[in-house]
Amino acid sequence: MRWLVTGAGGMLGRDTVGELRARGEQVTGLGHTALDITATAAVDRALTAHRPDVLVNCAAYTAVDDAETDEERALRVNGDGPRLLARACAAHAVRLIHVSTDYVFAGDARTPYTESHPPAPRTAYGRTKLAGERGVSDELPAASVIVRTGWMFGVHGRSFVRTMIELEARRDTLDVVDDQRGRPTWSADVAATIADLGPRVGVDATGVLHVTNSGEATWYELAREVFRLLGADPDRVRPVTGDVFPRPAPRPAYSVLADDRGRRLGLTPARDWRTALHEALPLIRKETLRETP
To answer: What is the 3-state secondary structure of the chain?
Structure first.
């Protein structure tokens, strides 16, 4: 199979390209400077030149707070871009895997969100990502999968885990939010599932699919686990409520995603986030130290 990955310079994009290459797949990765997914002609040229069987769209406007005052730009990338990609994929007979987010939900549930739960985004970022989902569903319903994920950490790029590694070395104590709950997820595990899905898109897999590690945690619990794995005292992390750190975009209080459809499809069950973090943390720390002046 031939693969094309957009947003290939980001955390998940880089992991997806790496996973596919490790499997011996033919893959081309294009970052945002190489391909503007909001430009019709550029997208058409890319599909014509690379002739992929599957396109994985990891490109996104991810500045959650900035989107509150820059929603028009966020909508172009997160909403118009995926619709344009889906339309081009339909014209070129290409299957599409599009990456979305837990922010499409209100974040006020008490049990994990299933794929069929009605979206109700409360932020500009969430609204624009939902627009992208609907664009893909409208333009390419029979040959696309929308992968929702959240709380990602990875070797490449910024993440909460990397921030905790950096702050552990600089601060005696750290206040971390303990009233927001989700599923910490290693981007490499999401990339592996995407690679598994590719041959099945349009065959026995379509629609929305939730892909995260298993288990639940608050940011405070995740930070304590990072400290523990670093050999630091977890009690240096102190719990606080979210209102201590007000942000332009409200953070969901609860954004745990259920993986009901993945189980029915027979995908490999997601491992616990602690297991994933234990494997990922030395790699993230090594990269963090390498990039620190």
So the answer is: CEEEEECCCCHHHHHHHHHHHHCCCEEEEECCCCCCCCCHHHHHHHHHHHCCCEEEECCCCCCCCHHHCCHHHHHHHHHHHHHHHHHHHHHHCCEEEEEEEHHHCCCCCCCCECCCCCCCCCCHHHHHHHHHHHHHHHHCCCCEEEEEECCEECCCCCCHHHHHHHHHCCCCCEEEECCCEECCEEHHHHHHHHHHHHHHECCCECEEEECCCECCEEHHHHHHHHHHHCCCCHHHEEEECHHHCCCCCCCCCECCECCHHHHHCCCCCCCEHHHHHHHHHHHHHHHHHHHCC
Q: In angstroms, what CA-CA distances link 278 with 12, 161, 190, 283?
A: 19, 12, 16, 10
Cα dihedral across residues 113, 116, 120, 122: positive or negative: positive
Residue 236 neighbours by CB distance under 10 Å: 15
Predicted local confidence at residue 268, as pLDDT: 85
Q: For residue 27, what pLDDT is reported?
A: 98
- Residue 293 has what pLDDT? 65
Catalytic residues: 125
Provide the pLDDT for residue 79. 98
Query: Is 264 in contact with 83 (CB distance < 8 Å)?
Result: no
Low-confidence ranges of the chain (pLDDT < 50): none
Spell out the domain ranges in the chain.
2-158+183-215+255-271
Task: Measure the CA–CA gap between 273 and 212, rounded to whole angstroms.
Answer: 9
Domain 2-158+183-215+255-271, what fold? Rossmann fold (3.40.50)
pLDDT value at residue 283: 97
Q: How many CB atoms lie within 10 A of CB 2?
A: 14
Tokens of 270: 């997601």
- For residue 218, what are the β-bridge partners? 181
Which two three-digit tokens encode residue 37? 């997914």
